[in-house]
Write a structure and sequence with these properties.
The protein is built from 14 helices and 10 strands. By secondary structure, it is of the alpha/beta class. The strands form 2 sheets. A 5-stranded parallel sheet has the order 2-1-3-4-5, with helices on both faces. α2 packs antiparallel against α9, α4 runs parallel beside α8 and α12 packs parallel to α14. The longest helix is centred in the middle third of the chain and has 21 residues. The chain is globular and about 60 Å long.
Length: about 350
């Protein structure tokens, strides 16, 4: 079993494979849609966990590329809460394993209702891949750890690549724009080794403060909100510390009233529209509680994790920070990540099912 850090370091390699093989990989999707592509007026995404977070990280770009409305929801929402179905929507069901119980139920419902649907998984032979209108391969391999690292970033990439192919067919994307966006995706992946080393150095310099925190709150805007959700999940799964992710503005309406010195606030900043807002929040937690950091562009002080995103897709770069940070926390706590998860969930609930029938 490889050390988890080596799986994290595989993220760029797997991403480049997705980009290189995108035309062949996505041709079955285009064949499935055929003449119906012009009638589609909405993209609905249904998923859980890191699959949900990956779409939250990409949804703004998907709308911009395809010029289609994007809706993102959990499978329970789709099945029981959001009951008005758009017959002109394409519903996409991401599930890395292809065995997520409730996502699978939602997919089966869409298929039974005759709705256009796509399953996005890592295994063309897994159950969801055989129960859908068409399957798209994430090509991220079967990770050895349940704490998904490669799969989350591959999830972002495959949804962006699907959007570009749909955009090319619909005429909302030119070949020149495709070339530009592919270059930006490649630039984001190329930044991972530098971000990994910067994160390790930053952790070493601030180890006592990070280890001494009882909880983390992660903040981000736009696609970085999805990264905040996933970053919090990785801090819980790998770093074994409770965490929560917030959209930057929403997380200033109430949660700040509960800040305290044991809560470490991590504020992502891509150097764009909300730079001063992000820096203001970082200054607030530093000055008032002495426990917070800005991550990314325009640092507040020398303790921050400073680097400038190298692409137009910062949601493909910032995940490296939280995956490496979580691994550093686990290493410092002597957590053996190769051991089976201690909690035996099966007597209580089941999130994945490796049988033919639900």
């Amino acid at each position: 079993m490889l050390p988890l850090i080596q799986w994290i370091e595989r993220v760029p390699e797997k991403g480049r494979l997705l980009i290189k093989t995108r035309k062949q990989n996505l041709q079955p999707l285009l064949d499935y849609l055929k003449d119906q592509l012009e009638t589609i007026n909405e993209l609905v995404y249904v998923g859980s966990g890191s699959s949900f977070n990956s779409v939250m990280s990409a949804k703004g770009w998907i709308e911009q590329i395809t010029r289609l409305k994007v809706s993102v929801m959990t499978p329970n929402e789709y099945l029981y809460d959001r009951t008005v179905r758009n017959p002109k929507a394409l519903t996409i069901f991401p599930s890395q394993s292809g065995t997520s119980v409730t996502t699978r139920k939602a997919l089966q419902f869409a298929q039974q209702q005759g709705l256009l649907n796509v399953a996005v998984t890592q295994n063309p032979q897994q159950y969801m891949s055989q129960e859908c209108g068409v399957h798209v391969d994430m090509m991220c391999a079967d990770e050895e750890y349940k704490m998904r690292t490669v799969g989350y970033v591959s999830g972002i990439l495959i949804q962006l690549l699907i959007a570009v192919e749909i955009g090319l067919k619909k005429g909302t994307v030119t070949p020149e724009q495709e070339e530009k966006w592919i270059g930006q995706m490649e630039a984001a992946l190329a930044s991972w080794p530098e971000i990994e080393e910067k994160t390790k150095t930053w952790f070493k310099n601030n180890q006592n403060q990070l280890l001494g925190s009882s909880m983390f709150a992660v903040y981000g805007i736009d696609g970085l909100w999805g990264v905040a959700l996933e970053g919090a999940l990785k801090l819980i799964e790998i770093g074994k510390t409770m965490a929560i992710g917030y959209e930057l503005e929403e997380g200033m309406h109430g949660p700040t009233l509960g800040f305290h010195p044991q809560l470490c606030v991590l504020v992502m900043n891509d150097g764009g529209r909300e730079t001063e807002r992000a820096r203001g929040l970082a200054r607030f937690v530093k000055c008032e509680f002495g426990n917070g950091f800005l991550i990314g562009a325009n640092p507040v002080d020398e303790t921050d994790l400073a680097w400038t995103p190298q692409s137009e897709f910062p949601a493909l770069e910032f995940p490296c920070v939280f995956q490496v940070l979580s691994w550093c926390l686990a290493q410092a706590k002597d957590v053996d990540l190769t051991l089976p998860i201690a909690q035996n969930e099966k007597p209580y609930f089941q999130t994945h099912q490796y049988t033919e029938k639900l």
